């Protein structure tokens, strides 16, 4: 007889606390980022989100990272690496493309803090988690989820070239990231992509595509290795000109004719 699965938790108080080693890693990382002055409710929100993610991942595969200290370093702190940049530029609204379990978007929205953030994912079970987490950590007033592809948003005049920032973590190569993200950016907005050790090669390969889509030459920003994620950098592109009509293309067209 098939064993009946327990209902997934909907409240932070119903999931285990982070172990001491994980909270210590978070303390250290926040200090490195200059974010150790965040309000207690913000700290509770980013911890609560991670606790829910780890609890849900025992039943639904939201992340391959299961160990709490690794999750703090490789998900939470890695996501918050962009917070100083967003704060420095006074950005308080953004779209997170391919948000998955809510990284980087949800902790960034809590820490900046964001006036508005839209977490986008095309996978229904992931959006179900996002909706639960947003409500559970009391961010429903400023953070929303969108179940669908970013191409749909880019075709909507309420979103096309309206946002001051787009963040993208673990979604395609840089040319594809640019094609998905730049159409959503207002002039002067920034596209921030999390990339690995091959970032410079990707930047060279994507240069002409980014220019075609209205972006500036991308800039590479290293991520402090003390955060515990040795292979990530941030690639930042500024929107300089309107993106031509017809972009982004559908996935089949992008695969058939890469930029």
Offer a few descriptive terms.
10 helices, Rossmann fold, 259 residues, 7-stranded mixed beta sheet
Could you give a short description of this structure?
This protein is of the alpha/beta class and 259 residues long.
What is the count of distinct domains? 1
CATH level 1 class label: Alpha Beta
Termini distance? 52 Å
Could you give the order of strands across the largest sheet? 3-2-1-4-5-7-6
Secondary-structure content class: alpha/beta
Report the sheet with the most strands, covering strand number, pairing sense and barrel closure: 7 strands, mixed
Which residues sit in consecutive blocks of at least 5 with pLDDT less than 50?
none
Indicate the radius of gyration in whole angstroms: 18 Å
H and E string: HHHHEHEHEHEHEHEEH
Q: What CATH architecture label applies?
A: 3-Layer(aba) Sandwich
Mean pLDDT: 94
User: How many β strands by DSSP?
Assistant: 7
Description:
With 259 residues, this protein is an alpha/beta fold. The protein has a single domain (19-256), classed as Rossmann fold (3-Layer(aba) Sandwich). Helices cover 40% and strands 17% of the residues. It has ten helices and seven strands. The protein has helices at 20-33, 40-56, 68-80, 83-88, 105-111, 124-136, 150-154, 174-181, 199-212, 251-256; strands at 93-97, 116-121, 143-147, 163-169, 185-195, 219-222, 233-238. A seven-stranded mixed sheet has the order 3-2-1-4-5-7-6, sandwiched between helices. Helix 1 (20-33) runs parallel beside helix 3 (68-80) and helix 8 runs parallel beside helix 9. It is globular and about 50 Å long. The model has no long low-confidence stretch (mean pLDDT 94).
